[in-house]
Design brief:
With 126 residues, the chain is an alpha+beta fold. The chain has one domain (31-120). It is built from two helices and three strands, in the order H-H-E-E-E. The chain has a three-stranded antiparallel beta sheet with strand order 1-2-3.
Length: 126
């Protein structure tokens, strides 16, 4: 009686391994971009809840944003990237940016991010 071997061949294993390594490498480039983006969203939401910022001048709001970015170790997002629009009800905080990471040779991963938060006057923390 002849026994048939079953299982993965060495070539199949190497192909599977290379695909897994490529996906892990791509994830190592992409995940930090999203972690930074969620830090920006968290900072904007936190700033909207601060009562003293609701009526503060734009410079103080920008300084608070810079402090939040420093606390979360986000060095890519600069305070100048925060756009502060004045509305009748308060401020509209916008952070709109593009992040580019080198992937392989001349291929890049590009992420476009947009975060927006309304900061109403007199509504923070109440």
């Amino acid at each position: 009686m002849k026994r048939l071997q079953s299982g993965m061949t060495m070539l199949g294993f190497l192909i599977t391994l290379s695909v897994v390594i490529l996906l892990a490498y791509c994830a190592m480039k992409i995940v930090p971009m999203y972690i930074e983006f969620y830090s920006v969203k968290k900072a904007l939401a936190s700033m909207a809840k601060e009562a003293d910022l609701a009526n503060a001048p734009k410079d103080k709001i920008r300084a608070s944003f810079a402090r939040h970015m420093q606390i979360d170790y986000v060095s890519v997002i600069k305070p100048e990237m925060l756009k502060i629009e004045t509305t009748d009800a308060g401020y509209n905080l916008l952070v709109d940016y593009e992040r580019r990471e080198a992937l392989i040779a001349n291929l890049d991963v590009v992420g476009k991010f947009h975060a927006e938060q309304v900061m109403a006057r007199g509504a923070g923390g109440e």
